[in-house]
Amino acid sequence: MVSQAEIDRLRLEADTIMTRYQQVETALQQARSESGDHWETGELLITLDTPHEETIEITLNLHADPASNAQSRYEKAKNLKAELEREQEIVGQLAPLPVSPVAYLICYHLDAVEGNYPRSMAGHLDARREQVDPLCEKMETAGLLDRVESGTVKQRRVKAKQADEVRQHHTYYRLSREGDHLLRFLDEPDGQRNVLRHLPDGHTLIQRLARGGPDYPRMTAEELNMEFEYVRHLYRALRQVGLVTEYEGSTIKATERKLKPKDETHRKHTYYVTTDCGNEALQHLAD
């Protein structure tokens, strides 16, 4: 993951090399005339004073002149800056979505049923209505949800209801065009990676599964000191996005589960494991 600090460091090193050009050139020429480990690595570590009179260490390319050493840093900083701006733009696409796994579940639920009201959604998602109500309002304000017009709601438009039509006594919501675009974005690798930035606890869960193997919500909640309901929704949201999936075997072998070593574990809970997409997203953020 690109950081502004890395970009600033590269620029400072480049500025310092150019400011101390003669000193750098002398150090390179002297190193080339002497034997030492620098011939094996092709690098030379020197100490220089920055333009701000601060002392820093810089690793130079032994075979390049001062200008080339500086230019390579300027170019790398430029490329990293472009990547950082791209990452910030991508993360920005998730910015309208509340930082809550239930918000993700609401989007996927409304995509499936085409329209529903908060109390019914709470039942479908096994969530509290007092949690779903404000999330729907925030998501409507953000442009991710639309209110269904008042009056009779046709069954063909709202699949959550079983009758051919129902008189609308509740506030119904459906996914807006922006909400639909957001779900499409979550199908892409960039979208899946940025879920782990948008939901930091999701990143923690993916790391835990990648290192320790299959796990279930209650144990995760206890060991990470999180609320069980929150962790359960977090796993479900990550599954919807495609970063985790349910473990299908009836018995978990010791080689698969490092979190609680046993010869084997007979599955009595819903266990989750990372998907290939989850592992790739985790690796990308670690690079």
UniProtKB/TrEMBL annotation:
InterPro entries: DUF2250 (IPR019254). Pfam families: DUF2250. It comes from the Archaea. This is Uncharacterized protein conserved in archaea. It comes from Haloquadratum walsbyi J07HQW1.
